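Friendly challenge for the regulars: who can give me the structure tokens for this chain first? No prize, just bragging rights.
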Amino acid sequence: MTFDSRNMTYGQISPVEGYLQDLYESVAAIRDGALADYIPELARADPDDLAITVATVDGAVYSVGRADRAFTIQSVSKPFMFGYALQAHGRDRVMQKVGVEPTGDPFNSILLDDLNNRPFNPMVNAGAIAMTELLQGTTPAEREAAQMSFFSRFAGRTLEMDERVYRSESETGHRNRAIAYMMLNSGMIEGPTEELLDLYFRQCSILVTARDLAVMAATLAAHGRNPLSGEQVISPGNVRDVLSVMATCGMYDYAGQWMFDVGLPAKSGVSGAIIAVLPGQIGMAVYSPLVDRVGNSVRGIEVCRRFTRDFSLHAYVDRTDTRSVVRRIYRGGDVTSNRVRSRRETDVIRDGGTAIVVVEAQGPLFFGTAEQLIRRAADAANTGETCRVVILDLERLSYADRAARVLLRQFAHELAARSTRLVFTGVGANPDLGDFSDAFAVEIAKGSCSFVVDIDRALEAEENALLAEHGLSHGAEKLSLADMELFEGLAREDIAALESVVLTFEFKAGETILRIGDIGQVFFIVARGAVSITLGDPDKPARRIASVGPGQSFGEMALLDGGRRSANVRADTPVLAYGLAVEEVRRLSVDGPQILETILSNIVRSLSNRLRAANDQINALE
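First reply, four minutes later:
Bragging rights claimed.
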């Protein structure tokens, strides 16, 4: 989803864009700075140009001013070229070509790190030229195509190059030639030097808009995933390295003051652009071609300073409360699965379920929050009687980093040493967790942890194990109507009358038995297997609201109102079920009214018990 104020209808209001508009009008009055004229084409820019764009990691884009005005990327290209080199060649190879230390010198300084025989960092011209040498391809044309493709993937659209600026850069880039030939002389680059310089000049001449740069910055903020296209352009690890160098070297010899005032990784260029990145939240771009003596946009610096101040976005403003990682904690004796149980089974689960601990997590999971989550889960497991299982529900996590996975693996080992199992739920339904389960292959193989689709099914599995320990086989086949709760209290002759009209049905696993809207002509009793009751589209995955096993009925509301089905029913396993036609039961009740009266009484009692249990669970979850 992208947000564009030009598509808004009358009366729609964006608070973010409203703020940006006020900021734009205030900063537009600043007239300090001058156009960069050492590249003749840059001196042709309109000094009144000003654009501010903010892009979020989930694809919203807010712009004010001349956000679609194209200009050349210049030095703002450097962090992305550094990212390309890391992605294509790996950190070790790249660190042989360039360092990561700030210089305190101008961006076009000829000073080089002779001690390590490499440029000081990739954000100055020398380092950028060294990174350009790492472009892949056998010909200059192939290497240029690789460069343009990579930058376009960051922007989420096909970018082009400004031929006039490229020629102007090439004709006047004598200092860059001096840098390149000095590097060639010392073995820092291999050449051919003019081809390498040509690629570098073309890189600086790529045309972008403030909107493009904001999306590119937001791609860095989103751990390398373009928020518009969804493409993973570079890995999160490489993003970390890029942002680290941007934070220390991105604003040249203004970098220290920038981090003190603004506090975000950033990069500027002499065309008047600045990008800033708040990891996990936004990318920001400002374009105003009036630059100061070190080549930074005067208005751009002021926009970023005010923006981060007004919204407390400085990187070192602590805004994370690790306590919020735990949504709630409860036990299996207080909150049960949606499996319909007999009264005896329910009593066993209520008593033994206290050994089942459920912890629901939310938000980001990193070292601080993972430590808090594990500590609170461990406290719950250590309270009361012996804990048989800890269920960690991760459906509401926004991500879980490597540190979190390491700590959770260790937690699984520690629980296993106390004969307690760790069960993860909600992972498959959470697109932000990706390959999370892969980190636990060893623990899964050892049986110290497992993954279940959701809390409901995890609770059901633990309840089934508990019932089996008490001699109540949850999957036992029940073929006698007399053993089923729905017919409890009926005389033998009444049971015989019902057995004379009973129908037998078999359903395959995954088969839909009832659909919402079907006419309720038959109700069913499960003799073997289990079914799930869900709402919504019966042909799509859905969270179940109940599960019914042997001895339990479904579709019985047809006896009360004879209307249409209010839920879907699907077979979880191969199912053998008895079916009784509503009309047949009503016919038998003409001569034996106690039949219908008893069945309806049992239905009402069952519904009452379910409602009471639901109220208890709601109270337990509050």
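The longest helix spans residues 593-621. Residues 38 and 172 are 8 Å apart (CA to CA). Your move, everyone else.
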